[in-house]
Amino acid sequence: MEEQTKRYDTLKAVLDYFYQDNTRSGSHSRYNLKYHFVWITKYRREILTGTLPERLKQILAEISSEYGFYIIAQEIMPDHVHMLVETPPKLAPATVVRILKSISARKMLEEFPSHIRKYIWRDRVLWATGYYVATVADRVTTEIVQEYIETQKTRKP
Asked: pTM score > 0.90 for this model?
């Protein structure tokens, strides 16, 4: 039993240490939610070249600032976008990517219509429908959190 108590104390200390500086605050929450998003251009066309990648980065930064996202990292490839974003818990990942894709497409189509129409002939389309999303942890593995949760009832208060 003493060994279980030591293990619990160690797990708690590890979680406290890792989460102490990595959380943000909302009006009713503390959170640490990071997502890796990837989405592609329509037909996977290599549209994002020349000055478009830098402008797209600016647009994504403006959107993120307006909606309370924090961009940790981003890279614009000729045919797809990678973003590592921290978001508040009130927004589902699907909502976050919908906001990023829809607003960025609208602005890019307004600013670069002739360049984009060379590659995509459909009106008002820049991005393909789908996307990739994965959650990302700060040095705390799924196994550590799982064990911490599973040992809640077996430890002494």
From this structure: no
